[in-house]
Write a structure and sequence with these properties.
Blueprint (H helix, E strand, L loop, with lengths): L1 H27 L3 H27 L13 H29 L9 H26 L3 H30 L5 H29 L6 H12 L6 E10 L2 E11 L4 H17 L5 E11 L9
Parallel strand pairs: 2-3
Antiparallel strand pairs: 1-2
Length: about 300
């Protein structure tokens, strides 16, 4: 978690510098695409700040009012970031359409140098941040990393638009604004994609089949476990809450069944291949009891 907080703080610093450079260069260089790109970077600052706040809340331990912890704060941060992306996309699209129908001056050539530098920095930083996000299984950090990669893509679009405008003259100065409009579409699409991912965790969507198979495999390797009869899990922040029904020999004592349940719980919660916050284990007899026998 601490690695995640540090990389987000670095992200805020990097975005602050790049946003300032892009907006100033866009104004001085008469490039609406570069200004739009600078606005997108400003949204990066806001989103990174939200992610940082979400991670700070998510790392708090469980308390009486939040017995399952505060992990959902990370997912809520992802939702807020995606909504910020929608807002930025809408504002850029409106301004781009307005400028397309307004006489334009061609942007200055030096704006291309600014964009090349931005693209290189963003691609390197997004790669580092995405690696950290995967290592700690953080939706918010992975969202922020993709936001940086998206920023590099929008800078590429701006680069193409400005290049066309410079190569083809003032008659094609509108290419810069078309590039800005394209940037807004990319931002909007990624806002939708990130919103969908964050909501799936908030709504406790079932984890992947690969994750379930791994859980069943790890639990099934515990001595005394005959079969994993039922599995449920939900994600909260960086980890999962898991419920398992495991089948054991019907002739063993209650104490022995309790010991097996604790071994399964310990193995799951301490497995380096899994991110289990808490595991609830229910013991079932094997062979299973016929429901008619209970009547």
């Amino acid at each position: 978690m601490r690695r995640g907080l540090r990389i987000v703080l670095v992200s805020i610093l990097v975005n602050s510098v790049l946003a300032f450079i892009k907006v100033v260069a866009g104004v001085l260089g008469h490039s609406h695409a570069l200004i739009a790109d600078g606005i997108e970077s400003t949204m990066d600052i806001i989103s990174s700040s939200i992610v940082w706040g979400g991670l700070r809340v998510a790392e708090r331990p469980p308390d009486d009012n939040h017995p399952y912890g505060h992990g959902k704060a990370e997912n809520l941060a992802g939702v807020i970031v995606s909504l910020a992306l929608f807002g930025a996309a809408l504002l850029i699209a409106i301004q781009s359409l307005r400028e397309i129908f307004t006489p334009q001056n061609s942007p200055r050539a030096f704006t291309l140098i600014v964009l090349i530098s931005v693209i290189i920095i963003k691609l390197i930083f997004s790669r580092v941040q995405l690696k950290i996000g995967h290592s700690i299984n953080s939706v918010a950090i992975k969202t922020d990393a993709w936001h940086h990669r998206l920023d590099a893509l929008t800078s590429m679009a701006a680069f193409v638009g400005i290049s066309l405008s410079l190569l083809l003259g003032e008659a094609f100065a509108v290419a810069d604004d078309i590039a800005a409009l394209f940037v807004s579409l990319i931002i909007g699409y990624n806002g939708y994609r990130l919103f969908r991912n964050a909501i799936s965790d908030i709504m406790d969507e079932a984890p992947s089949q690969e994750f379930e198979m791994l859980i069943r495999q790890v639990a099934g390797e515990v001595p005394g476990v005959i079969n994993v009869e039922k599995f449920r899990a939900r994600k909260s922040g960086l980890g999962y809450f898991v419920e398992l029904h495991v089948e054991v020999d019907e002739h063993i004592s209650v104490r022995k069944g309790h010991e097996i349940a604790h071994r399964v719980k310990d193995v799951l919660e301490h497995s380096e291949r899994l991110d289990i916050i808490d595991a609830l284990i229910h013991i079932e007899p094997f062979p299973p009891i016929n429901k008619k026998e209970l009547n």
